[in-house]
Amino acid sequence: VGAPAAAAVDAYVEQTVACPGPEFAEVQRRAEEGGLPAIEVSAAQGKHLELMVRISGARHVLEVGTLAGFSTLWMARALPAEGRLVTCEVEPHHADVARANLDGAGVGETVDIRVGPAEDTLLSLVDEVASGARPPFDLVFLDADKAGNPRYLELVMEMVRTGSVIIGDNVVRGGAVLDAESEDPDVQGIRRFLTLQGQHPRLEATAVQTVGAKSWDGFSLAVVTDG
Ligand code: DHB
Ligand code: MG
Questions:
Q1: Which atom of ligand 1 is nearest to 144's Cα?
Q2: Is the distance from the beta carbon of residue 126 to the nearest atom of ligand 1 less than 6 Å?
Q3: Smallest Cα–Cα separation from 193: which of 227, 221, 164?
Q4: pLDDT tens-digit profile of 120-159?
Q5: What is the separation, in whole angstroms, between the first and last Cα of the chain?
Q6: Pick the CATH number of 3-224 from 3.40.50.150, 3.40.50.720, 3.40.50.300, 3.90.950.10
Q7: CA–centroid distance, residue 170 to ligand 1 (Å)
């Protein structure tokens, strides 16, 4: 399947079923105005994340990698009234744009943006969950630097429960994930991340390849089990 055809199908999916409201165009407008890279998930993928939150009945969602808050908004608006989303972002400017976007879209109260290296934020969250200050997360979306994924997964496993869902973005990377000798730390991070999930006694996982506006890539999906 050629990339242009796949992108056209994404546009069709966007119009027929994903149906992003005007608030998503506003998110992308602020991202562009702020000079952020246009590497957010597609609308079709964002709606997929929204549906994962709804299907899982998640009330506490963790996202690693906020960027302008596009995927954040898809997931946040799927939460029930008492639901909360924590999202980690290392770039203060990205966090500022995301804050404007999420406030503008009316989910500002639902979303806690934590600015700083993801590992530091995750370590704090592990303490908060361990002390009972916050409940475990029901759904986690990993979409920051992919070299960090093995460490992020290790920390995430300390703050989930049986039945929690873990989703990873960009696990195929145009097929580059196959290259065991790759010198790209993101490729090696994803390879280790997938291997850890395949071997983990408390995870059942898979990865699904995608094409479309975002080219050839894929999501990983895992559920936490009793082990
Ligand atoms: C990049 C990061 C992403 O999360 C993505 O979905 C696409 C590209 C990147 O860092 O280039
Ligand atoms: Mg991504």
A1: 4
A2: no
A3: 221
A4: 999 999 999 999 999 999 999 999 999 999 999 999 999 9
A5: 39
A6: 3.40.50.150
A7: 7
